[in-house]
């Protein structure tokens, strides 16, 4: 989906259309859960602290999130998916892989299926979606971002390797900012640069991740679409420029971490029973504490309360706190299907 949370808010409140909108946070605190395309033009991004977003875009309009509404819309979209595929692997409320090779509606190609799905989403929800169509998950994911918003990108097998070679590695799914910086230091900037590094070099620098990178750089990805997918854990952490010693500052920082974690938890549409607190001391020693509940942790306030309870016995901390993290865990179910062949285009 295109800027999903923000697009739902603009759909439901016409006065927000055409304006830079941030879902979540406020003008004083918190983090951005989603940003409209108008806000993105100013460099506002999800998971960005609200104060930073406001500096980049002083006219930014903050809207409180309505996760119940987003989940309702997500269910509408997934009901559409279910008309075209049995193997649906959700990544979040607004994104999923579909294995459409069975061609249940006899449309003749994956691109025709994607076009019809996008049209139905627009008709049923009033929102736009972008689709990537390809022969494996890695390239389909890249293609889905290629022509956003409201776009369709098809990468057939004969063009997969060239498509990957031309892209910056920071766009690769699974390569975060830290890995991208490491690659830059190794003079790896594009898919072609990554392809030109031998597997021994990649293993020396990236360990077990090397085999995936080696294949991805050549347009190869053998992972099947998993019919049901849940993250093992979801959370957030923050490293501070100066060590925190003041109790009020520590509590405010923990609340900010809980905000960032809950954005990711809601985006992944997950729940769990265990909260884990991570604390790094001034001497770089890292402490973790965990607590499980009966039932599930079903709100940001509940997660923060657990975090506060885990942190309290550790305070005061000599020298202060360098890092705080909060994670929700215990949420994985897996299923696998095979991927037979279907034309991408007709």
Automatic annotation (TrEMBL):
Report the EC number(s), separated by commas if there are several: 2.7.7.7
Taxonomically, the superkingdom here is Bacteria
What range(s) does the UmuC domain occupy? 1-176
The record's comment on cofactor binding reads: Binds 2 magnesium ions per subunit.
Gene Ontology biological-process entries: DNA repair; DNA-templated DNA replication; error-prone translesion synthesis; SOS response
Q: Which InterPro entries match?
A: DNA/RNA_pol_sf (IPR043502), DNA_pol_Y-fam_lit_finger_sf (IPR036775), DNA_pol_Y-fam_little_finger (IPR017961), DNA_polymerase-Y (IPR050116), DNApol_IV (IPR022880), PolY_HhH_motif (IPR024728), Rev_trsase/Diguanyl_cyclase (IPR043128), UmuC (IPR001126)
Please state what class of enzyme this protein is.
transferase
Question: Keyword Nucleotidyltransferase on this protein?
Answer: yes
* GO CC term, one of those recorded: cytosol
Q: State the coiled-coil residue ranges.
A: none
The residues annotated as the active site are 95
Q: Which reactions are catalysed by this chain?
A: DNA(n) + a 2'-deoxyribonucleoside 5'-triphosphate = DNA(n+1) + diphosphate
Q: What CDD domains does the record tag this protein with?
A: PolY_Pol_IV_kappa (cd03586)
The record's function comment reads:
Poorly processive, error-prone DNA polymerase involved in untargeted mutagenesis. Copies undamaged DNA at stalled replication forks, which arise in vivo from mismatched or misaligned primer ends. These misaligned primers can be extended by PolIV. Exhibits no 3'-5' exonuclease (proofreading) activity. May be involved in translesional synthesis, in conjunction with the beta clamp from PolIII.
Would you identify the family this protein belongs to, as annotated? Belongs to the DNA polymerase type-Y family.
- Name listed for the protein in its UniProt record: DNA polymerase IV
Q: Which organism is it from?
A: Sphingomonas endophytica
